[in-house]
Structures are given as structure tokens and as C-alpha cells.
Design a protein that fits this description.
The complex is a heterodimer of chains A (about 350) and B (about 350). Chain A has about 350 residues and is an alpha/beta fold. Chain A has helices spanning about 1-20, 30-40, 40-45, 60, 65-75, 110-120, 140-150, 165-175, 185-195, 200-205, 215-230, 250-260, 290-295, 310-315, 335-340, 345-355; strands at about 25, 50-55, 80-85, 105-110, 125-135, 155-160, 180-185, 210, 235-240, 260-270, 270-280. Chain A has a domain at about 60-165 and about 250-295: 3-Layer(aba) Sandwich (Rossmann fold). Chain B is an alpha+beta fold and about 350 residues long. The longest helix of chain B is centred in the middle third of the chain and has 17 residues, at about 105-120. The chains are: A alpha/beta (about 350), B alpha+beta (about 350).
Chain lengths: ~350, ~350
Amino acid sequence: MLDKIKKSQDILASTCEALGRQINIMEVCGTHTVSIFRSGIRSTLPEGLRLLSGPGCPVCVTDQSYIDIVLQLADRDDCIIATYGDMIRVPGKNGSLETKQTKANTKVVLSSEDALQLAKDNPGKNVVFVAVGFETTAPATAVVVKEAAVESIDNFTILSGHKLVVPAMKALLSGKNHNIDAFLCPGHVSAIIGSGAFVPIVEDFKRPCVVAGFEPLQIIEALAEICRQLSAGIAELKSLYGAVVTGQGNIVAQNIIDECFEPADGYWRGLGKIEKSTLKLKESFSRFDAFKRFNIAEIPGEETSGCRCGEVLCGLIEPPDCSLFGKNCTPLKPIGPCMVSSEGACAAWFKYGGQERN
Amino acid sequence: MTTDKNDRILLAHGGGGQLSDELIRRHILPKLENKTLTALGDSAKLDVDSGSLCFTTDSYVVKPLFFNGGDIGKLAVCGTINDLAVAGSRPLALSLSLIIEDGFEFELLDKILESIGQTARSNNVDIVTGDTKTVEAGAADGIFINTAGIGIRLAAAELGVEKISAGDKIIINGTIGDHGMTIISQREGIKFQSRLKSDCAALAGLTCELLEKTSGIKFMRDPTRGGLAATLNEIARSGKKSIEINETDIPIDKTVQAAADMLGFDVFAIANEGKFVAVVSPESAEDCLKICRNHPLGKKASIIGQIIQTKDFPLVELITRIGGRRIVQMPYGRELPRIC
């Protein structure tokens, strides 16, 4: 393994030298971010190569308004909020699910099935599933929505905050950050949507896209492949995650998403409103839509003063560039979501980076 | 009066009257029998030779009460023995306090007491004094246990974090994260739990052997809550020395790693209940390792790293599998399972 790593590292070094400029590669997946930090890859990169953590952590990209809506619902006596663990510490305008006095009706679940079961077990309450995540978690949400429809579990709704990866990548390149040279594409999401989904990024924006799994060796080889393309002045789509990712992706999962959801315009933290970038329940399942059940309008939320998570997510700054990082904002007392989620860029910098905060 | 499996603890069992007496005589004493306890005095009298004593206490509130590899009773005995062991002492006696909920089944209580008795006996430690209290249903998650322990410090044990110096080796007696991942998986009802087993064990036999047969042990600590990451950071901070560990040398069971990865936990921060970390002089490291590997509780022992010169701030650094470096941070409390 060390031979292969050395070979890839040589390609990275020679590319940086040959191009003679800063190379910016964005990883669009929170699991990649963590794996990169945890395996110490950053410490082995040549100086001219910078890895940017993109909008790939589901909790981080969730707009402030969504968090505040969840907190409002948690205040209602007739609701039980079923949420994945990462979400409970994200601060809203008035506290978080963890700090508010609503703990009794906030349940951490490990799966969407657990959320539906909560609804079955509590027929007198409205169970609202905080459905966040990308194309990886959307199928699991769709499955329980269908199940709720078949079994008429009418006290179950979902607050869909599901998001689509490719529209965010396009939005970044179209406006927020032109300095991204290439993308390390997400392994899990690609398994669902297929590597073919990144063709527009390669063809329309001429940026290399390389799909990789989460083993450090494969990540380094993906970076080397990106550098090979950059030095040759080409942009291609490649997948090194062949065993898991196909060109077409998981058709069954895509079909179930299509059956229940349709793309809708929606808000992202840092990126603002992006056309057809979120998943909204179709009309036929609208009775399970918490936005409709509780008559909630989604309007863009204001970010916490001083918090620069939005810029971190766009790759415009690195976490230590934020004046709150490591001082007012730490994993113990997070201000922004990127410090809350275990897959957030700020949390990873804080946990594995070390030097910057001393 | 006999006890059948429908019998349950009542608030009155903590009232100091006939029921309390029956709880002690019928359920507790037979399981823990020894001369000092059976005397049922207000205090236990212990005879010791000259020297110094180590004294510790810990409370146990684990959920579930029974898990693969142990139960709250075994944990309460092992945990306190281990605190005495890593301080360089040979455990002499323990106290046992039970806080039991109204309605708790006697069948479960008997199993826990049996486990306490068996663990204490097999480690040559007597439970010499104790107490029982009952609380209302819902107030104690079934049962809470407190144990305190006294140990006699071994003459050879002169342990202290201030003795640590650059070049010293770090040894651990086996795989990390087994206890915590077993508990988490069992609590969450994850399917691979059957292949996970807590490492819950009493370490005094091994630590005493190490202290008696080698001379280079400078400091020991058991990496319980907060796992290896917390223990190494505590050593680095209080010893004011940086630590460097090698990822490839840290023993981790494959199922434990898989469970941690799946649930989004960092194995370095997961609790152990049968492990110690020892800082030893470079000259004695190989001897210590040999002793560990010849002991049932140290078969997978490994030298995982060393104390290094501190630059600006004492840090724990990991040399990763791919030859990179990163910080091992002090865990910051409860870790949250991730979304995807």
C-alpha cells in the first residue's frame, strides 16, 4: 500500500510544481472530509494543493430557517420530533433541540423506520420526522412515507430538508466559487445517483470529477487522477469506486425517490436559493408533508451573527479563518452547524487539525 | 419465606426493618460471604502491615444492566479494582452500596450479586462492608451500584506522571473500544452485537506482576470513559509532554471498528473496562510486553507509541497508516451518531 501511496504523492508533487499555482480540489462529502482528516492525508499534501470541504455535510447545508421551523414544532405539545442525532445540537434562533425544554418530545432515531414506529407507538401525537440528507438518505425517507400511506399512519409527517448534490456543485461554479479546479465526488451519493450524474460538471464547466470511496489510499489515488487531468489540461469523469458505483447508479433507489419526491427550489446555508435542488413530497403524498400539515412557509433564515459556516461550505474560507473558530465556537459550545456535525468541516479541523487553535 | 421469580424489591426493603434484614441475609450475604462482612458490624476492621494505602470510589449506572461479557455487578467490582491496580496497589477490600428501584426483580438482583461475588472471589478481594437503599420506581434505572476500594501500594510502585520523560514507551494490554461499542450496539439494538464482547476484567493480577517483575513502569491509567484518546491527553497535559502513537500498532478488533464506523463513533474515544495504558522506560518496554502477552488479559498487548519532546503545547499525535500525522483530540463528551 505504501508504494501506491508514494506513487500518487509523487504525481501530486510534480503536478503542483508543473502548474506553478495553487490547486483547489473540493471534496463534496462529509465522510470524505472526515476520512481525509482522520487519515492524516492533509499533512502529506504538497504546499500548492489545497483541499476544500464543500457542501457535503447534510446538517451543515441545512438552512437556518429549517432549524427554526423544527424548533417551533418541538415547542408544540401535540408533536414528537424524530431526528437523526447530528441535528439535535444545531443552534437555532432560540436554543437547540438539546438545550430547549422540549427534550421529552424530541427523540433521536437511527433510521426513518424508527421514526415511523414512533408514530405507530404514539397514535395521539403528531410525529414529525426531520428528514435531512442527500440522495443517500432520501430513499429511506421515501420508503417510510409509502409505508405510512399503505398503513394509513396519519399522525406521521416528514419535514423534508432533503437535498440534491449536483445542483449545489453547479451553483458553486456558477456563482460563489470559481476557484474550484476539480471535485472529489462523493462515494455514497454516487452509489445512488450514478457517476453519470456528474457529466454536466465535466462537460459544461470543464472540471475534472473523480468518484472515490473512503479508504485513504483510494482518496489519494483520486487526487492523483485529478492532478493527472489538470496537468494534461483535460476534464474527465472517472470512478475509482468501481465495486460500488456504476454509471447509472441504483435505479431502484432512484425510482422510489421519484415516486415520492419531486425536485423543488430550496434554500441552502451559504449558497442561498438553488433551483431544483431540494426534494419536496409529491402531491399524492402531501398529507405526510409537515410543511402542509402545519401550514409552514419556508423562508430564508438569517445566519447567526459572525458565523461564517456559509463561506466554509462554499470553500471560500477555511474554518480557522473564521474569528469564532476554536474560541467562541467549539464542539462543546457550537455556534454554527459545521462545528456540530461529526462530518462538519469545522468539527474536523478542530478535532484533527490541532495547531490552529493553540 | 422463599423467593420466587415474581418477587420484587419493595421500598420497604430499604427501611431498615425485617425486610431489609432479609434482603441482606438471604440475598447478599450468601453471595459475598466472608468473615468480615458476615460480622455485620458498622465498620469493617482490616489488618494491614506497614506501608501506604490507595483508596478509590466509583459509581456504576450502566444500561443495559446485562451485556455480552459482563453485567453491572462485574463492572462495579472490576472498575474499582482497576482504579486501585493502575495506582500501583494490590486490592485488599471493597465496599458495596446498592441503590435499587422499587419493583426491581429479585431474580435479576440475585444474578448481579452472584456476579459480584464471583468476580470478587476470583480476584481475591473481599467485599467487607456495604449498604442498601431503595428508591421509587423510575428513580434509578433499575439499580445503581457504588463500590469503594482499598489497596496496599506495592513497594516497587513509584508511579507518577512527573516521572515520564521523552523516549518512554506507551503500552496497552489489548484491543480498544470493545466495552463501549458492545454497550452502544446493545442499547441501539444493532444486529452485530452478538460478535461484540465487553473487555470488562480486573487487571490487578497483571499490573502487580508487571510492577513486581520489572522496574521501569512510570505511570499507569485505565482508559475507561473517553477511551484511549482521553487517557493519552490526560497524560500529555499533566505530564506536560507530547505523545506520538502509531495507528498500525494500536490493536482494534475488526467488528468493533466496523460497528464504530457504521455508527459514526471514533474508536479512540470509546470506553474500555479491562485495559490499562502504561508509560514505561524504553529499557523495560520489551520485558513488560512479554509479561503482558503471557497473561490472559494481555495477549494482544502492544507498544503503541512513545513520549516525545513537546514543541509549544503538549499534544497527542497519531502517525496514520499512510504515514500522515494528525492530532488525537480530548473527546468532548457525548458523541452523536451521524446521519449517513
